[in-house]
């Protein structure tokens, strides 16, 4: 028998120690039974482990058999102490000394070279060693904490992530079906390549969850630290979190691909309407250019000595691109049609603006003639108010200006000079405030540009997008 590790205990101290050690023994037994039935332990025992989990379990997996062996030694030592205590109701000195040695001394023999805790696993083991009951309890607590941490971590990963993977795979299949309906395939479109990479990544994550769950676990502390059996036994919450960062990245990438495919789906639904809109813009541009050509012929026939800009031809290249877009739509190549449609809409709008600008430039001489006609009519009305309508000089200048403006081809420079001379003929006004007031009103009326007498549109001005032909 080993020498006592300390002073001899009293009878009351012996009874209290036996009660405490008995309660600890019952708690350890309950915890070991719960650990033995832990779902994570059963999964680890039956799984084909890889990587970090394989390395850890090769060490920690020996912990449960060792725990039961240590527990048996603990129970035997405690039973021996209880048997000594049961010899006498009031034990004497020899019994108390023996009990003190059993309860506090290194009285427990651990055969078979059980290493001193999991942190020394792999070190040379001694064939026989003696420890106290408290030391044996500390050793069991350390092993229990290590085994429980690994088992609980693996179980937490296997509980949380397979369902997450199944949801991601189901979403991937739905997105792949959508991509196939839009003609998006790997090797033909970047989105198809992205889906192929996501599928491979999910497959790798699924295998990693199945074979190496500890690679997806982030412990809150360094494992294998000494402690006591936690409340609740083997069902205590693991100290750490499941690492879902890569799953979150896959989920976000899958959402991005789905959004882009849904944009292509909307394009498929709107492609016909948008192509029709491009065609309508080109038809309006063609009609405007045709009107510009007609107006140019009219200007060349009615306006003399005027440089009229040429009217551009239709956008044939744009129509060829529309034909290509229609072919892409018929073949369902929506991912190629999307950028082309945006470019076609922009080009068609610019083509219509170009046609309108051409019409404005071509009809400018007719607009000038119409303005001069309007000014001449305004000055004629002013002459009537000034009572100068019968003046021979005024009549002569009016007739000259009118003949120039209504003859074809019209010399705009000569006509503008004639209108100015007619206006000057009205300036010498009779004395008196009435005449001055009449002259002022007449001059104000002569400043009207682009409108004839009576407020009607002047000949040659654009109305509803068309140039109104006037008198020759």
Rg is: 52 Å
Low-confidence stretches: 1-5, 112-119, 223-234, 432-436, 438-472
**Total beta strand runs:** 8
Give the N-terminus to C-terminus distance in angstroms: 141 Å
- Supply the number of helical segments: 14
Give the strand content: under 5%
The helix fraction, in percent, is 55-70%
Principal-axes shape call: rod-shaped
Q: In which order are the strands of the major sheet placed?
A: 1-2
Q: Please tell me the overall pLDDT.
A: 78
Structural class: mainly alpha
How many domain regions? 4
In sequence order, what are the helices and strands, one letter per element? HHHHHEEHHEEHEHHHHEHHEE
**Main sheet characteristics:** 2 strands, antiparallel
Describe this structure in words.
It contains 14 helices and eight strands. The protein has a two-stranded antiparallel sheet. Helix 1 runs parallel beside helix 5 and helix 1 runs parallel beside helix 6. By secondary structure, it is mostly helical.
